[in-house]
């Protein structure tokens, strides 16, 4: 902590000689180690506190800059030790600047009124008219945002949570801004009413206004050239570069928005990526990705999602305005130039192809293809279960976790199969059985609903695929349980209904209990809500085992929880199902090695050279790293099961 004192007459004379000016020198206090040589052409006004400036910055290009203030107007600021400020074209006003901050070539950096720095900003999320308005703040998580946006059936709980957020926002309100330790701010336009955390890097931003940049040394925030941001919050480790433009947005941990991407009234949680395209009123859960120009995400909720080039949605019918929105369950993809109208709900891990003209609800048919067919939609249920891309995507998500902060704000459930997806699969299986028994069908198609149809043979295949998925999931959880040598007994609580809270899988009943606690004043702060959610995460494996025990009848040839019978299921059925799946996935992968793919290889060469070049670049399917990983993993499990049997 600095020990401040008034300037001496000699120091005032030295500063004046170095073209420094002040209307009242008595309002300036300095550190004991103050040196006037660190200042040149500075206009001081208001109350000023200055630290020591015994430090030299070495830039990446090797240029060295001595700490101090040069060619700037500074009003009503505290400047910490070893800070460098130079070439401020207008002024720095009402900021507390921490040690070793580096600020150069900035038009204006000021707080001009009492500000909450983006906290308390209201977003018209999903419904552009604002019926699901979300208030953002520094510590917003995907799970809390889900509750606030989609649990409006419990208004008292929502009201109380918003009151907690309002209390937090009021605590942040100040007439002074903050620039953290080792923040680096260069070549920028106007920065107004912005909180800037430690180690933030801001280089070339055009306009930053009313926001918080919650940067940390371990997870710095990076803002690049020509960025424009209004009414925003950036979480630790976020990146905003290359002319990205956001307005009324929350950008979560490890998220990257770049390359002219624009967003309005949207939230992006952990590890999202947005390049080139546009987002409006979007709830982007973890790992929502859009990389292409002419791609629009509007009025939708997504997670683990990939938008193809030119894909888009529409959220109104030109009657009551943009009141509609859609829910796209985890793991879904939109193919290039695909389109779907809202309101629709798309089942988990589905693929949307073509331009659909009708609203659809395939939430009970996950892992499906949706293919536009003139004025109708064809569904191929369960077919994504045979796509190697589905399994490759799931395996890569944990490896692409960009969050460096020790505190991970969003809770993320990664597995492909979970109680949430399996409950959908079970419903889908029974739905397909009912459709197959229905008389209201043609020889070729069975109508799922008006203008939405499924080929009869696809219904039969879908039933088999869903049953296989159930067996694979049940076997996986049994295998893990036996490995841990834990008790196979469950308790009386088995939650039948599960929710996907923007990336986190949890029992619906427990989420409702949490909301009831909030309503009844048994949970009284944001910290307590986060603790309750963390407890759900801690109890996930216990609750999942109880769920698996409850659905054992859905898995073939399991009638009890006797260890011997469970091991027999694993060795006789589960491993065989795994091997069959690997064969199917290998066959799917083999398409990437077929002759049509080789057309661009060995240009102007004979067939032998073409094949040689292809093998040098692609190898063969058996050598593919992901296929080899699946095979090796299955071999290890066979050995474990043999050990369990012994």
What does this structure look like?
- By secondary structure, this protein is α/β, with parallel strands linked by helices.
- Helices cover 29% and strands 27% of the residues.
- The chain is built from twelve helices and 43 strands.
- The strands form six sheets. The protein has a 29-stranded mixed beta sheet that branches. Strands 1-3-5-9-11-15 form a six-stranded mixed beta sheet, with no helix packed on it.
- The longest helix has 28 residues, at 456-483.
- It starts with a strand and ends with a helix.
- The mean pLDDT is 91.
Q: Topology, pairings included?
A:
Elements: E1 4-6, H1 9-17, E2 21-22, E3 28-31, E4 39-45, E5 48-50, E6 56-58, E7 64-66, E8 68-75, E9 78-79, E10 84-93, E11 95-97, E12 102-110, E13 122-123, E14 134-135, H2 142-150, H3 155-172, E15 177-179, E16 184-196, E17 201-203, E18 207-213, E19 222-223, E20 228-234, E21 239-240, E22 245-251, E23 256-258, E24 262-268, E25 273-275, E26 278-280, E27 283-284, E28 289-290, E29 296-298, E30 300-302, E31 306-307, E32 312-314, E33 326-328, E34 333-334, E35 339-341, E36 345-346, E37 351-353, E38 369-373, E39 376-380, H4 388-396, H5 419-437, E40 445-449, E41 452-455, H6 456-483, E42 498-501, E43 504-507, H7 508-519, H8 526-538, H9 540-550, H10 563-590, H11 607-618, H12 625-645
Parallel strand pairs: 2-4, 3-5, 4-8, 5-9, 8-10, 9-11, 10-12, 11-15, 12-16, 16-17, 16-18, 17-19, 18-20, 19-21, 20-22, 21-23, 22-24, 23-25, 24-26, 24-27, 25-28, 26-29, 27-30, 28-31, 30-33, 31-34, 32-35, 33-36, 34-37, 37-38, 39-41
Antiparallel strand pairs: 1-3, 6-7, 13-14, 38-39, 40-41, 42-43
Helix pairs in contact: 3-7, 5-6, 6-10, 10-12
